[in-house]
Amino acid sequence: MKKGMKMTSIAILISLALLFAGCAGGGEGERITITGAGATFPYPLIAKWADEYDKITGGKVSINYQSIGSGGGIRQITAKTVDFGASDAPMKPEEFEKAKGILHIPETIGAVVIAYNLPIEGRLKLSGEVLADIYLGKITRWNDRRIAELNPDIELPDKEIIVVKRADGSGTTFIFTDYLSSVSKEWEEKVGRGKVFSFPEAIGNRGVQAKGNEGVTAVIKQNPYSIGYIELAYAIQNDVSFALLKNKAGNFVDANVGTVAAAAASAAGKLPRGDESWYGVSIVNADGENAYPIASFSYILVYKDLDYMPEQKAKALVEFLKWMVTDGQKYAEALHYVPLPEEVMERNLETISMIKW
Amino acid sequence: MKRARGDRVFWLLAFFSSLSVIVMFTLLFYELLSNSVPIWKDGMSFITGMVWDPLKGLFGAFPFIYGTLLTATFAILLSTFLGVGIAIFLSEIAPSSLRVIISSIIELIAAIPSVIIGLWGIFVLAPFVRDNLQPLLQHLSFIPLFSGKTLSGLSMLTAILVLTFMVTPIVAAIAREALLMVPEDLKEALYSLGATRYEVVRHVCIPYARQGIFGGVILGYGRALGETMAVTMVIGNTPSISASILNPGYTMAAVIANEFTEATGDVYLSALIGIALLLLLISLAVNLVGRMIVWKWQQEG
Known about the structure:
The complex is a heterodimer.
Chain A: H1 2-24, E1 32-38, H2 43-56, E2 61-66, H3 70-78, E3 84-87, H4 93-98, E4 102-117, E5 125-126, H5 128-136, H6 145-150, E6 162-166, H7 171-183, H8 185-190, E7 207-210, H9 212-222, E8 226-231, H10 232-238, E9 244-246, E10 252-253, H11 257-267, E11 295-303, H12 311-325, H13 342-353
Parallel strand pairs in A: 1-2, 1-3, 5-9, 6-7, 6-8
Antiparallel strand pairs in A: 3-11, 4-8, 4-11, 9-10
Helix pairs in contact in A: 5-7, 12-13
Chain B: H1 2-35, H2 44-48, E1 52-53, E2 58-59, H3 62-93, H4 96-110, H5 114-137, H6 156-180, H7 184-192, H8 197-226, H9 229-234, H10 252-259, H11 266-300
Helix pairs in contact in B: 1-11, 3-6, 3-8, 4-6, 5-6, 6-8, 7-8, 8-11, 10-11
């Protein structure tokens, strides 16, 4: 019995030793791990990139990305505890100040759709002003004259609107409030843009806040006469009905890869340089006949000066970023992400060429 | 000689294990306090503030304190009622075959992960509250507690019911253990005087076991105060103060979980950490009051 125990502990010691040896092993310069942290929205895409890039480099470069949220991503890249950060919104001026020499590299495009649960035939049509007034609590019933005007062919129910929003801080909410702020002065003054916002008083007990895209979707599915906003990819995967939205050109557009890319392309000419502040960059309510109005870039954040990391790692990081904004884009569509238009891709390559190590 | 050394090692191990608890608690408290300094600059206005609007830089914690205390308190009242009832049935009344079945079901419920209870809350309980329970309660709408109306079923009432479901097994299991400790001869003495079963439970079992039962209640209350996932999924997450439990609410644990990852700015972060500190203090206070009551009972004998 006693001997058996001794043997067991020796076995444990040996296996522990092997484990540590395994971690330390691999030798220098053979396998490079690049760490990143940030937004949850691009996580499935970045995970796919990590997987493919591992194959391409024959296992030499591995990408370790943790989706801890944009706020956490910005904090970690500012403290340089990760090699790159990711955020659904550009850095605020004070954050940009703290992270001297940070570059913004849009890596994919997200879109937000207006999901609803209504016993109607056909697709609901909405405009930005009407949507803002629903979320401001000024339009309270589905058969409101202003909704009916947009939907002459649909018989709208005489029911109160259950208004759903995200309870947790999220890039999705930022894009949504950015859009409402750009189409409604009143929204901009009373509520504003942010990763969280508070329902105006007038919403009262019609308002529900749920955690995550999945929470908002669950509430909408459970409650007839509800409306809410979720990510496009999530809506497609879960088969939720969402509204056609009136864009700046006055057309009702569906959200899909084509219309979202059109929004990004129309804004491409006005983008700042990679090392400038991107605060205020927005592709919501974009020009273009076919542009879907609630869309946004998601950003990779990386420093211009990589001299704080080993040279080999810096080189590998730059190579990865180049691949990500070019060849890597072909993996986007299958995961319901929108690939970057040509113009944005070129701007990104310019930005990446600024990186020194 | 060898034995003495082994003893000393054992003593040291035990000592450092218990020391680690004190060290961890002190560190936790210190971290929460030091990281929430900016929000305490306005002192009490953080605690008494009614408005939580991070976009406008308004951080008032009162709606969360209110929601936490309201839901947890109602839940523990219901759970105490149910849990003690179950415990009495199990220890005094049920035949042994039934006893085993019910006991294992209770243990099973206690082991369900809270996210699963939350899902059940969204998909089953919330529609039930909306379509069945609410029409009944509206007959009582002259009482402020039931005066509101929930369109979605996501309300403080739903949170209370979910919490009751989670906490009852804890109260029941501990109360049963306490009731099983009541000496048989005490009970038999009363039976021999011609007492009914109710009288025995009322005059012997409950008074004898009350410390243990109360301990279970305090433990359950702590669980209800801190429960996060299941509550945030069904409460509607609205930081408002409403007398009616048919309206949505918000709790301290839920707002921390929801907003912490994306909180930017020092004041916003420190406000959330400040809420964590308040939650810790409230849990401590509940435990302390519980201890004092038990201590007083011990004094009385």
